[in-house]
Amino acid sequence: MKCGVLSFIVMNILIFIALDFILCSEISTGPHSYFLFGWIDLDRKFNHGHFQWSVQGFDLSGLMSVVLISSLLTLALSKALKSLI
């Protein structure tokens, strides 16, 4: 695998994570905390001294949208950085 391909993949993953943090919202209702991303809804519940996580919802089209947007942003950023060098 070329170094350029590996750096593109790593940059794409980092931008995907950044987009998830931008889209993230939290709703707290006492012992429950709901983390809502653009494509997955997580429920964190405090029970008997430890946290339990469960998936409340999953949206495949939302996941595909975030993956596509992060790929396009990565491609644009890599083209812009190559033109500077």
* Poorly predicted tracts of residues: none
How many structurally independent domains? 1
Main structural class: alpha+beta
Portion in beta strands:
25-35%
> In percent, how helical is the residue content?
40-55%
Shape: elongated
Output the radius of gyration.
Answer: 17 Å
Total strand segments: 4
Mean pLDDT across all amino acids: 87
Order of helices and strands: HEEEEH
Largest sheet: 4 strands, antiparallel
Cα distance spanning the termini: 22 Å
Number of helices: 2
Question: How would you write the strand order of the largest sheet?
Answer: 1-2-3-4
Task: Describe the 3D structure.
The protein is an alpha+beta fold and 85 residues long. The chain has one domain (3-84). The chain has two helices and four strands. It has a four-stranded antiparallel beta sheet with strand order 1-2-3-4. It is elongated, with a radius of gyration of 17 Å. The two termini are 22 Å apart. The mean pLDDT is 87.
